[in-house]
Specification:
One of its GO terms (cellular component) is outer membrane-bounded periplasmic space. It holds the Pfam family Peripla_BP_4. Keywords: Signal. The protein is built from 11 helices and 14 strands. By secondary structure, it is an alpha/beta fold. The radius of gyration is 23 Å and the shape is elongated. Bound molecules: alpha-L-rhamnopyranose (RAM). The site of alpha-L-rhamnopyranose has 13 residues, from helix 8.
């Protein structure tokens, strides 16, 4: 080997080794002043209007924080496997933070831990990761409130008594399962004693599957009075099924929906009222939270707080959870006004 080829070979070996190291094991350090911060928002699935709204909130936060890039991503259908693959690739891309709405509280923990070991700040929002898989979880609101409000809306729609069914998102979704548990507990209480839960089915936050499941409920339970869909995808599909089966006025749909997607179904009469929090604010605040963790702000920890920009400071409890505002109720009186926003 002459001198030139020796130098080239040495350089190549050194480069190869360092790029290998970059790919596995090195810890991302706190970004220097002026360095671009890359925050990946990993949603349950793409094509869901709720997450599109959260994305616009993340972009708003990025514009205010300056020097922040949002990488918006998610699987095509809501599966933990799809999200694991995505997080793996975000680790190789060495993003600074991952803000995730998890399709499963536990299945994603090992990959989230791997990301954190590499210095990536992992924050869950909307649908949580188990505590050991994230630094913080941002709830849209109090779970108890969200669960009970949905039963209350169902009871209001059907005069307080009758058969009800739940059309949920995917069977492992952290957020929906927490709310369903709250509903099942509340059904044991005297105030909801006349509501009878006859079935819980899963539409996987896919319009076609949700629609088929809703049709199945309507045909299997002829005395059904209400369908509660604690998912913005499911509630639209259930309302369409009620209209298509000519059951408007006999079966009412309620749950969590986006005013922009629900206005027509309030007009058709399939839905009297539904609820939701502001998904734009949720994405906005989650992005601010991730930013504080990336910056190593001392208060950004369990028992502390984070700066949520135009929303002020938000407290983080001892379990690393934070919560935003109460869900808001929509009906014929206000749905058109909010339909213009989200
Ligand atoms: C769907 C998703 C999301 C949930 C909303 C209410 O868009 O399942 O996680 O928070 O509904």
């Amino acid at each position: 080997m002459n001198r030139k080829t020796f130098i080239a070979a040495t350089l190549l070996a050194a480069f190869g080794a360092s790029s290998l190291m970059a790919g596995c094991g090195q810890k991302a350090s706190t970004p220097a002043e002026g360095e671009k911060i890359r925050i990946a928002m990993v949603v349950k699935s793409l094509g869901n209007g709720f997450f599109d709204a959260a994305h616009s909130g993340a972009n708003e936060a990025a514009a205010q924080l300056k020097n922040v890039e949002i990488i918006y991503t998610g699987p095509t259908t809501p599966s933990a496997e799809g999200q694991i693959e995505i997080v793996n690739s975000l680790i190789s891309q060495k993003v600074n933070a991952i803000v995730i709405s998890a399709n499963d509280p536990n299945a994603l923990v090992p990959i989230a831990k791997k990301a954190m070991q590499r210095g990536i700040k992992v924050v869950s929002f909307d649908s949580g990761l188990a505590q050991e898989g994230r630094l913080m979880h941002l709830n849209p609101s109090n779970a108890e409130l969200i669960g009970k409000k949905q039963l209350q809306m169902a009871a209001d729609s059907i005069g307080g008594a009758g058969e009800i069914a739940i059309l949920s998102a995917s069977a492992q979704a952290t957020n929906q399962n927490i709310w369903i548990d709250v509903m099942k507990d509340a059904l044991q209480k005297p105030e909801f004693a006349k509501l009878k839960l006859v079935a819980t089915v899963y539409g996987d936050d896919q319009s076609d599957k949700s629609y088929r499941e809703a049709i199945g409920l309507l045909r299997s339970y002829p005395n059904l009075k209400a369908i509660i869909a604690p998912t913005t995808v499911g509630i639209v599909a259930a309302a369409k099924a009620v209209v298509d089966e000519n059951l408007v006025g006999k079966v009412y749909v309620t749950g969590l929906g986006l005013p922009s997607e629900m206005a027509g179904h309030v007009k058709s009469g399939a839905v009297k009222e539904f609820a939701i929090w502001n998904p734009i604010d949720l994405g906005y605040a989650a992005t601010f939270a991730a930013y504080d963790f990336v910056k190593g702000v001392p208060d950004a920890k369990a028992g502390g707080k984070f700066n949520a920009g135009r929303m002020g400071a938000i407290a983080i409890d001892g379990n690393g959870e934070a919560a935003m505002a109460e869900p808001f109720l929509y009906n014929a009186g206000n749905v058109d006004k909010f339909a213009k926003i989200f």
